[in-house]
C-alpha cells in the first residue's frame, strides 16, 4: 500500500460518494486532509478521525474564486503546504438536452471545468514550492 504519511491532500466534493471514499483512503495512508464541499462535511471528517486521521473542512462553492482562495488560506495556515490536489467534485444535470436551459449548462461547466482551473491557480504554486506534485513536464 502506497503511503502518503504527512502529505497534505485537498479533496473537493468530499461530503459523499467517491470524494468521501478518496478522502478516507488518503487518511488511511497517512495524509492530512483539507476537504471542500458545498454540502456538510461532518460525516467525512468523522470517518477520517475514526481512522486516526486529521481533516479541516471548508464549506464552499468550488465554482467561486473567493472560496478557493479562502481554502488556500486555510490550508496554508493549518498545514503550511499542499502536496496532493484531488478535483473530484462535479455535477451532471440529469435532464435531456431539450429540457436543459443555458443557465443550467453554464452552472455545470462552472462546477465541472472552471473549478479545476481555480483550484490549480491556488494550489499548484504551493505544490511547486514543495518540489513535490504540481510540476509541469519539462519545456
TrEMBL record:
Q: Which GO terms describe its biological process?
A: siderophore biosynthetic process
Known SUPFAM superfamilies for this protein?
NAD(P)-binding Rossmann-fold domains
One term of GO molecular function: 2,3-dihydro-2,3-dihydroxybenzoate dehydrogenase activity
Q: Which residues form a coiled coil?
A: none
Highest rank taxon of the organism: Bacteria
- Give the InterPro entries listed for this entry: DHB_DH, NAD(P)-bd_dom_sf, SDR, SDR_fam
Q: Which family does it belong to?
A: Belongs to the short-chain dehydrogenases/reductases (SDR) family.
Protein name stated in the entry:
SDR family oxidoreductase
Q: Which organism is it from?
A: Pseudomaricurvus hydrocarbonicus
Phylogenetic placement of the source organism: Bacteria, Pseudomonadati, Pseudomonadota, Gammaproteobacteria, Cellvibrionales
Amino acid at each position: 500500500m502506497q503511503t502518503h504519511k504527512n502529505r497534505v491532500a485537498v479533496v473537493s466534493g468530499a461530503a459523499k460518494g467517491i470524494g468521501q471514499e478518496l478522502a478516507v483512503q488518503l487518511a488511511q495512508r497517512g495524509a492530512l486532509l483539507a476537504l471542500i464541499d458545498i454540502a456538510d462535511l461532518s460525516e467525512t471528517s468523522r470517518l477520517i478521525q475514526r481512522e486516526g486521521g486529521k481533516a479541516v473542512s471548508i464549506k464552499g462553492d468550488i465554482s467561486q474564486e473567493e472560496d478557493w482562495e479562502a481554502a488556500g488560506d486555510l490550508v496554508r495556515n493549518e498545514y503550511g503546504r499542499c502536496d496532493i490536489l484531488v478535483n473530484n467534485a462535479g455535477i451532471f444535470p440529469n435532464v435531456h438536452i431539450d429540457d436543459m436551459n443555458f443557465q443550467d449548462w453554464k452552472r455545470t461547466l462552472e462546477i465541472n471545468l472552471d473549478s479545476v482551473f481555480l483550484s490549480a491557480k491556488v494550489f499548484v504554486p504551493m505544490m511547486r514550492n514543495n518540489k513535490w506534485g504540481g510540476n509541469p513536464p519539462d519545456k
